[in-house]
Design goal:
Chain lengths: 327, 727
């Protein structure tokens, strides 16, 4: 039997008027509250979409028309963090229709690196530091710097491109995985501030990475036409597991679904690709956008059947897909 | 006696005549020169008279005509006077008559002229006038001003006569009676043209086209086409010459008159197939016609009846080459329909007009074509519907609902669709009826298009599946929980994005090489070696030019492996066409204004090319070597040589630890180098001791000298065994 044709988007969101840089779902809500999708735009606005009515609930404007390139919920749906090109990380209070900035953290880096948030009792935020290759981890409550990871003066790793902060069960210290401009992926121990392992994954800067802490396995994409999958063994060494070739070069974003079953990539070739996470089996190529896709995000619905995939693109549209949700 | 003096005398006589018989005599005598009467003049005389004396003579006749002559000639001989106008060259007579009528006040003379003109038209002499001008247009020296005068006179005749005759106008000259005559005349001319085309003569129907255009411009399409079209359509069906003539006739209507002609045709013709017969693929060839048919009538004017729209769009659907135009029209229509402006600022009839066009288009397009227009449909639906629903006018809202329902149905036939509640009125019912086209027969065309695509799509997935199966088997053995529970979707659409196509011809490649576009350049560089080898004949035509471009190509764009690619291409050119290219390259080697790098490149190219030329020509010898085994094993049907079979079996089961002896020694063959070795070697060694301003091999540039000596060595080495005479 021939494989079925790829699905069409479930719906799309338009009228945004700017490129969509980042997307974030908040769907872990009980019934009367609508599931939300946050989108950060190149115009500096943050749209809050109600996924039931498919319209914007609120539009947040706090980055002085500077591009917003990372957004994440902090504790609940009413507390949002956003990182903008104005070198500020804002914390928003959205409760009861408010939209006010309650807190701002200044970032020293002008790079491309998105922040990474870890919520294990205390909230830790990893963000690019002052130096080119530096990453800082701060405790959000106290604003104290827990670790400042600097590869040393003589290393030539280039700018830090993407980071992922996570807490392994066995260790006390959170670990940080960072992709650098020279194409390497590095595992840092945050508290000891030392490099635990480093592998060269790509020949080009690492554009995006995601890490599955359950299976200790991660994936990274660059401007090349490969996806690199690497694992972390018991000795905390990074090892390349597989390189998956894709047809057209350029991965803007890669993300693993919460159930660790599938991976989605946002391609410069306007296509969204879906792979099985276990063996990186190519599953689907979703074509909808007319310009390069900047970001992909999976929703965190409590009911698996309702799970969605969202992709934001340079063509000013967000496409919403329902794919492999019934498993 | 010359014609001139005869005419002179006759005119003199006519001015003094007072006698009936003398007058009739003179006139009868002059009739000789029109080729009539008992004793006609010679052909040469007739033609001279017609060419130079006919018009003045007619004018004189008109001047003399008066009560006196009418008395003299009486009614029976008045025909004699008339016949001069009827029997002579029609074009001149026509002009003289109109001129005289314009200059004469009401009197007997005017009556005579009008009567003659009436007879003239009734006789169908208009066709002769038109044909005469058509013939004149083929002459080496044309008189466009005069033709323009004729055009104006013919077209304005009803108005002109109405002005001159005021209340005494005759019904023949009424436009409703006159223009059908013009139509008949045009048909007659076309008939003559078709006859002479059949005889192999050249003809021009530009004047007829102009006439057609001008008459239509005056708004007389109905009168003209009611006569013209029925005949034309029947003729076209049976005769390909008429078909070609008709296309030419419409196609050469001047742009300024194209619109009324096309509007007239669209209004008067019964349906799209008739229009398609008359127009052919005019919409593709003629920009003006294209604009009128695909833009003006659909987008800018909205007073037209729905039958007219059906005719236009149906025409686009019938012509196989125009179907892309139809899709484009639909996209434009959707874009217009869904724009804010139209809802805000246009009247309801215009919105209804656009909706009608959209419905007709959708009804005409095939499923596949609609599938291709899906993004536009979605865009139109999502952007437009809201605007219509927000309108405060109920008819506008209703229109939006109907179109949105229709669009949503087209986008996803099986899935959920929009439904609105509204009361149907006549407009709506009529709109919905438009979805089912009444008379379109392009069904055979899309069916053909569908068939191959299906057949080609089916086998491909099968092949993929076969490939996949073993993979999954091995996979399940090593890891039980794999991704197999997730069934992949069809990924055949996931192809490499290429912004620019690789050039298919060497000349295109050369153009790309000298362009500034980096991507073009890169693709051209990579595809060039293959192209050169594939089309050696085409390469030979441009070999030195190509070598020149390649030699002077700079790596300013940072293409990967630029130098290798360039070297490979240059070597390919040199191998394909060794003599002229090597001559050119060596000439450049010793000329001014090259860098050392370029000179060294030339040496590299020469050495590599010589190397390749001296290799054995590979393809034929290989095939021969492989042949015997293949042949013996495939000989299944014939009588089997058992010894051979046994030997073969032994051979297949024997393990060979060294394969060195098994290989047959290479068959000797003359290489291609020995023929051109001299062209490579001697010119290169010739000039090394003659320094030029920028290149002195024996002085500062000894680096190149070293390389040159090495290259010469290579050339000599490769020319081993070549007969000296060839060197």
């Amino acid at each position: 039997m021939a494989p079925p044709p790829p699905p069409d988007p479930k719906f799309d969101l338009r009228g945004i008027g700017a490129e969509i840089n980042c997307l974030h779902f908040y769907c872990k809500v009980q019934k009367p509250c609508p599931p939300l999708l946050f989108s950060g735009l190149s115009s500096g606005l943050i749209h809050v979409w109600n996924l039931n009515t498919r319209r914007t609930e609120t539009i947040l404007n706090g980055h002085d028309s500077n591009s917003v390139f990372w957004i994440h919920n902090l504790h609940n749906k009413d507390c949002l963090m956003s990182q903008g090109r104005d070198l500020q990380i804002h914390t928003w209070n959205l409760a009861e229709g408010r939209n006010e900035v309650t807190d701002s953290i200044a970032v020293d880096s002008v790079g491309f690196c998105k922040c990474s948030l870890l919520n294990n009792g205390s909230c830790l935020l990893a963000m690019p530091g002052k130096e080119l290759s530096q990453v800082q981890v701060i405790d959000l409550a106290s604003k104290k710097i827990l670790g400042c990871m600097n590869p040393g003066a003589d290393s030539k790793w280039g700018m830090v491109m993407c980071i992922k902060l996570w807490q392994p069960k066995s260790e006390s210290s959170p670990l940080l995985i960072a992709g650098y401009e020279d194409g390497s992926v590095v595992l840092w121990n945050v508290l000891e501030q030392k490099v635990m392992s480093r592998i060269m994954c790509h020949k080009e800067p690492v554009m995006s990475l995601d890490f599955d802490c359950v299976n200790a396995k991660g994936v990274s994409g660059s401007s090349e036409n490969i996806l690199n999958v690497w694992t972390l063994d018991e000795q905390q060494n990074l090892k390349t597991l597989k390189t998956q070739e894709i047809v057209n070069p350029g991965i803007a974003d890669v993300t693993i679904r919460e159930d660790k079953k599938i991976v989605a990539t946002a391609g410069w070739d306007t296509r969204i690709r879906i792979f099985g996470w276990k063996k990186m089996k190519p599953l689907a190529v979703l074509q909808y956008h007319s310009a390069s896709v900047h970001c992909v995000a999976f929703s965190d619905h409590l009911i698996p059947e309702e799970r969605l995939l969202a992709a934001g693109s340079k063509d000013h549209r967000i496409s919403i897909w329902s794919i492999y949700s019934k498993t | 006696m010359s014609v001139r003096s005869v005419v002179h005398d006759a005119l003199n006589d006519l001015s003094n005549i007072t006698d009936k018989d003398a007058l009739v005599g003179v006139l009868t005598n002059m009739k000789r020169y029109l080729g009539k009467g008992d004793n006609p003049a010679s052909v040469r005389e007739i033609s001279e008279f017609c060419r130079t004396h006919y018009s003045p003579f007619l004018r004189a006749l008109v001047c003399r005509m008066g009560p006196q002559w009418i008395d003299l000639l009486t009614s029976e001989h008045l025909d004699l006077w008339d016949s001069f106008f009827i029997d002579g060259p029609a074009d001149q007579a026509f002009l003289v008559l109109l001129e005289s009528i314009g200059q004469t006040r009401p009197c007997a003379r005017l009556d005579c002229c009008v009567n003659v003109l009436e007879k003239f038209l009734q006789r169908g002499a208009l066709a002769e006038v038109i044909w005469e001008i058509c013939e004149q247009q083929l002459a080496p020296i044309t008189t466009p001003v005069l033709h323009e005068v004729y055009l104006t006179k013919i077209c304005n005749l009803p108005d002109y006569l109405a002005n001159c005759l005021q209340k005494n106008n005759k019904s023949v000259f009424y436009p409703q009676n006159y223009f059908p005559r013009v139509g008949t005349a045009i048909l007659k001319v076309l008939h003559i043209v078709s006859m002479s085309l059949r005889d192999g003569k050249g003809c021009s129907i530009n004047f007829v086209s102009q006439l057609l255009g001008k008459v239509c411009m005056q708004g007389r399409q109905k009168e003209l086409f009611s006569v013209l079209l029925p005949h034309l359509t029947t003729k076209i069906k049976s005769d390909c010459i008429w078909q070609r003539m008709c296309w030419r006739l419409i196609g050469s209507v001047p742009d300024r008159w194209m619109e009324p002609v096309i509007i007239g045709l669209v209004q008067m013709l019964p349906g799209p197939s008739a229009l398609s017969q008359i127009l052919g693929d005019l919409v593709l060839k003629n920009k003006k016609a294209n604009f009128i048919l695909t833009q003006k009538l659909l987008f800018l004017q909205y007073g037209h009846k729905k039958e007219m729209l059906q005719t236009i769009l149906g025409y686009l659907a019938i012509e196989p080459s125009c179907r892309t135009l139809l899709s484009e029209v639909l996209w434009d229509l959707l874009e217009l329909w869904s724009s804010n402006n139209i809802v805000k600022h246009s009247p309801y009839p215009q919105m209804l007009h656009i909706s009608r066009c959209i419905f007709i288009c959708i009804g005409l397009l095939s499923k596949q074509e609609l599938e291709g227009s899906k993004p536009e449909l979605v865009h139109g639906l999502t952007c437009g519907t809201r605007i219509y629903l927000e309108s405060s006018l109920p008819p506008v809202r209703r229109l939006g609902m109907v179109v949105a329902e229709c669009l949503s149905l087209q986008i996803d036939n099986s899935g959920p669709r929009l439904t609105f509640e509204y009361t149907e009125d006549d407009d709506i019912r009529e709109l919905k009826a438009l979805l089912n086209p009444p008379c379109i027969c392009p069904s055979d065309l899309p069916a053909q298009a569908k068939a191959p695509s299906k057949s080609s799509a089916v086998p491909a997935p099968k092949g993929e599946k076969r490939q996949e199966k073993p993979k999954t088997d091995t996979g399940s053995g090593s890891e039980l929980d794999s991704d197999d529970d997730l069934n992949p979707f069809d990924m055949s659409a996931d192809t490499e994005l290429k912004k620019i196509k690789a050039p298919a011809y060497i000349r295109d490649c050369m153009e790309a090489l000298i362009s500034d576009d980096v991507e073009k350049l890169e693709i051209a560089m990579t595809s060039l070696p293959l192209l050169i080898r594939a089309n050696s004949a085409a390469t030979k035509e441009v070999s030195t030019e190509l070598a020149k471009i390649l030699l002077n190509l700079d790596d300013h764009s940072g293409i990967e492996h630029f130098t290798q690619l360039r070297l490979i291409s240059m070597v390919s050119v040199t191998v394909t066409d060794p003599v002229p290219v090597s001559k050119y390259l060596i000439g450049e080697f010793y000329s001014l204004n090259y860098s050392l790098r370029q000179r060294m490149d030339i040496l590299d190219v020469l050495a590599s090319a010589a190397q390749e030329l001296s290799n054995l020509p590979p393809p034929q010898s290989k095939a021969k070597a492989g042949d015997p085994r293949l042949a013996s094993s495939s000989k299944g049907d014939g009588p089997v040589d058992w010894r051979k079979v046994v030997e073969e079996r032994i051979a297949s089961k024997t393990k060979h630890f060294s394969k060195g002896q098994k290989q047959a020694p290479p068959t000797p063959a003359p290489n291609r180098y020995y023929l051109v070795a001299g062209d490579f070697f001697f010119p290169l060694i010739r000039n090394f001791d003659r320094p030029v301003v920028t290149f002195n091999p024996l002085g500062a540039d000894h680096l190149v000298l070293g390389r040159m000596v090495q290259t010469l060595g290579i050339l000599i080495h490769l020319a081993q065994h070549a007969p000296v005479s060839c060197m």
